[in-house]
User: Fold these one by one.
Assistant:
Number 1:
Amino acid sequence: MHHLLVFNIIDQIRTLGWPGFWSLLRNGIVSGSLLALIALGYTMVYGILQLLNFAHGDIYMVGAFIGYGVLQAFGGAEMASFPIVPLIIIMFAVAMVGSGVLGVAIERVAYKPLRNAPRIAPLISALGVLFFLESSVQLLTNSAHVLYEGVYLGGNYPSTFGPLLNSVFTVDGIPFTTVDTLVVLAAVALMVMLVWLVYRTRFGKAMRAVAFDREAAAMMGIDVDRVISMTFFIGSVLAGAAGVMYGLYIGDTSFTLGFQYGLLAFTAAVVGGIGSIPGAMLGGLLVGLFQNFATGYVGGQWSDIVVFGILIGFLIIRPNGILGSKAIQKV
Amino acid sequence: MSDTPDTPGVPEPPPEPPAETESGPKVGVDSWVASHEGRTQRGPLGWLAHGWESTPDWIKLLAFVAIAASLPYWLLRSEGDLFNFGLYTLLFVGFGLGLNVVVGYAGLLDLGYVAFLGIGSYTYALLSSPYYGIHWPAEAVIPIAMLAATIPAAILGFSARRLLGDYLAIVTLFFAEAFVVFTNVANPVLFGKGLTGGANGIPQVDPLTFFGYKISSTKQEYFFLIGAVAVVAGALYLANQSRTGRAWRASREDPLAAEVMSMPVNRLKILAFIFSSAVAGLFGAIFAAILTAAVSTQFGIPFLITIYAVIILGGLGSIAGVFVGAILINCTFVFLEPQTDHPGFKRWLFYGAIIVLVALLKPWYKAVVVFVGTIATGFVAHAVVQAWGGSAWTGGKTINGASWLSHWVIIPKTSHGNFDNILYIGLVVAMVVVMMLKGWWRIIALGPTLYLTAVVWENVLSENPGVTALILFGAMLVGLMIKRPQGLLGQARVEIV
């Protein structure tokens, strides 16, 4: 490092110019949408159980692998005979349902027996689940990186899959690919559905009631266990969808994915104000943007440190996040 | 009562009687009552527990030192055994002792602990190696390493002032991640060299040298570590018995009440961080000297979880528990290693553990049903598969002898596509199902599940020992939290409402 970091950054900004800025912004929005989807799972579970579900990132990773498995079951990306659009839909559907079931199973096995235990017990149990899932996938895949062949960005694979997803169109000179658009649109659609579910349906009302006061909700005749199971299911479904999107967008996945993205998504949930659904979406977008701009202007090796630094600073200055409500301690 | 948002003035609903799960707190009793059941235990286990409780703590420590010091002369004769079993166990005791202060005594979930170990390790490596050509003696470097670890810990503890439990966990976890990224990837240049040596770390670290006396052979290191561990354990024992120790426990159980009793809760938290990181700095430095290197990837999350497993298995807040946990976890880990001097032993360990767990079922006839079910399932499944697929599916050999097992466990001769993966996923699903079943259904389902466990062990797990250890750790943490959250020697916690 011959210059001060600040000069380096200014240099970077000059060299990259406007096109660089726009492409960083685009990448930030795409990965921000993914992070927002994962962060929603964290925030919903936290809102309802005050539990930090460390294993949530790994559900996302398992979702990516389920999508890959479906792709392989249909003969891989090179297979020309099966229409692509239904194939992508099937990948999403199977991965979402699979992740959802996994999330519910985790809740039943690892968290439900600990509902009245001291605070630290479910946290440690969650760490155990994280380890179990990550190592299990490592075992099942022999630690390999798997590729969604042909979908790989800029990939040269002769497939029917790649050209469709990677076809480029430009808006004002900024190149967009189909997969960028697909990821952002799907994420927005899922979030709209979630908001509708939580704020406009009977079930959503029950969920908000349980998050507000579990005991009172139980006395009002709400089946608390079912609501909690459903919350895990919905959060995990979103994570599974995000996993497939990640596979389509980045192209490869490995067993370490869950931990990396889990941390970033948790940052997003905290920055947005944990427990708040709009907060998680906003936080995801912010963290995605921060991460990409840090990668572009400061350097890839520093991006994680920048994001974590922001989080720590944020927690110290405003512990409740942007949209979080102030926690009041009552005696 | 910071957990549940309840309105003041409205009386709490009467607590429901605890259902079958025993893990829930016994509402309205104190800690003496909580441990009452354990104290009135009868039979050999009860005598053991009683004898353990009535022995003074300093005698336990002396007994440990005496036994540990004699080990190189009868049990751990070879250099490799002494290094893997002896040294590593003692290192884990040291690591666990430090973590126990912040997690066990003060009840703060510190996930950044490995970073403090790393800081101690790197400090020693930088100040006592040819990397920068500095060769300071250990009596000077170790205090510096401890100090270097306490400064970021104090800053983290300071941020912990405003953070409630879970936020603290995530901030410290980020700190640990940032440490690995900083040392491994960022590696800033200082005096013409990368400060932390990047992915290679810092090699050729000097052995510990106190006042000119060099500790370099495995046996010398072993005896030095026994001393270090005993001194630190004694000091932490005294700290825990002191006013500060009581204050830590009070602020762990109910920070709000402690604060109302005019305890400086925030300062206590910072103090716990400082104590814990000083111990981490000490043992991190020793770690670097013993490994003769400081490598950042060592201080990752798997290492953190291993240390957590040590203190949780032994019992949070219990010093004797740290010793027991370290011995159990490290020895299991060594037996699971790919290259070990005792290749056949891990199979005995695995089946032995299963048999012990089943034998603990009460009443005894349930255990018999499970055993009979497991063995019968095995012979039936083996016969069916042989009749249907022939020896292609059953003719495989078990590794390291025990050929009789292949008459009972299905081991295919050649690999059959995704057979291994399907088996493994099947086992996980079966275990989830067993946990959801109740009463006799669970007992009946347990037999086939255990047989499936044996099949998976022989086919999949024993061939991937490194990953298997992590899987077993994960499962153990979940299982322990559900069945016995206080660990082996920890004190049961109760909430007084």
Number 2:
Amino acid sequence: MIPELSAVALALAVGIPLASSLRVSASPRDNVSLLTGEGLLLGIGICAAMPALLPWSRWFIVPVLLIIAAVFAWRSAGSSPPGQHASPSRWALLFYALALIALIGYALYATVAPPPEYDYLTNWGYKAKAFFEVRYLDWQFLRQATYFNVHPDYPLLLPLTYDFIAILRNGWSDAHLGVVNVAFATASLLVIHGAALEETRSRLAAAFITAALVPFAATPWIGLAEGPFVAFATSALLLIRRGNMALGAILLGLAASTKNEGLALIVAAALGLICARRARDVIRLWPAVAIPLPWLIARSLHSLVTDIAAGGVIARIVDHLRDPMPLIAAIASVSLGKPLLWIALAIGIAIASRTLVTRERFVIVTLAVQFACYIGAYLATPFDLSWHVTWSWERLVTHLTPALTYVVLTSLIAWHGASEPAAQS
Amino acid sequence: MALPYSKMPGALALLLEVRARTKPGDVIGIAVPFTKWDQGYSYLYTRALYPLTGRVVVPLLDEHDRPRADNLARANVVAAYRCEPHIAGFAVVWRGRDGMLLRRTP
């Protein structure tokens, strides 16, 4: 597991100084968890970019990463050291312990065996292993892939992350690649905790929200891109929501470099900003477009076609809209599990609806547009509708639930804070 | 790694053996004792991709259960799981507990 842990350490070494230099004044530098989470996500993105830019040798890549880390550290030198926080209460410690125990359990689950998922064997892991065999980004392999589930048009951040680990090891081993899932889950929980701490100014609230969101950050599909996408997307939305546009837009770009759904999320976030009367911030999303742009150009040059966009899209959408019942029936047939969660979320939305509408317009509109894009993808699918929904619906929903749950919880806390004086009077 | 192959015992060991006995660039056809794409064939064919990276793995059956003579013509190796296909121009070069490897004869 040493190469996997070394990859995480290198990601932290590069990412934390970069995140520190990108912080805005609205985000105090003493928020260690936020800085660490952002740094880990940024660092993984930089590490994944290395195989696309440099020779596939650890003797090239590691020194380059260390130089980048030193440059970022030098640039961010002089920033204030982590400040002292008040000691957490017993209840806060209990929630921290719950989150930690759950995360340890997830780490054991993720690393007990190589990733067993079908999409890992035929897509994410397959591409990574195929690239590593030849030690370069094999465009011919992508162009000639005959099995549809290889999805040569999917962005390559995750396969290149696996390749980065293989480069550190100087050999392919999938025995502990689940560490990548654990790293992403930890990073997103650190961002969630840091954002909640900044917003609520309460360690108890931050600890509770973090513990509550462990099941969303710790996605069960080991080896697939859902966990990384959830981490990038959720963190991006939370940062943009708080006005940290630079970091938020970069993470949004990394989400778009992880899954095609991330491209839709950029559009959704732009619409969310407009609806939240932050139209001026839309232009500040430019890093989100710039980061996946090289891949989109290369994909186009190599004619790697997206199956959803295969010929006759309009005809398929019209056909499915004429008779939406198969889609509705397919969605209804897929169990999302966690009935108590959905009930609690619905109650929370009902209670905090006013706060959500007034304060959380950005996140709500973004998630609604993203949801509409997912439905649009089903309408345009060239595959059997029932099959497509069955094998993707649950995963797609997990893209949206962490940010939704976060804003519902913080809105409930805000609503409780606002209603308490009234109740007392 | 055995879990994704659990419905076909011995399949992963066979594929790893095939990997060891082939070289990058070989075109490998997959033969199984099932003649339906959705009833066994695709299970092994799609799961053969990962252990056989570097080789070109081709199906000898299409999604409509029709034989793919074009892929057989491309293949220089056939990996057969629990079956003994007799294919003109191919000879058995290795035989194991759960399958065999056939190679195109010169």
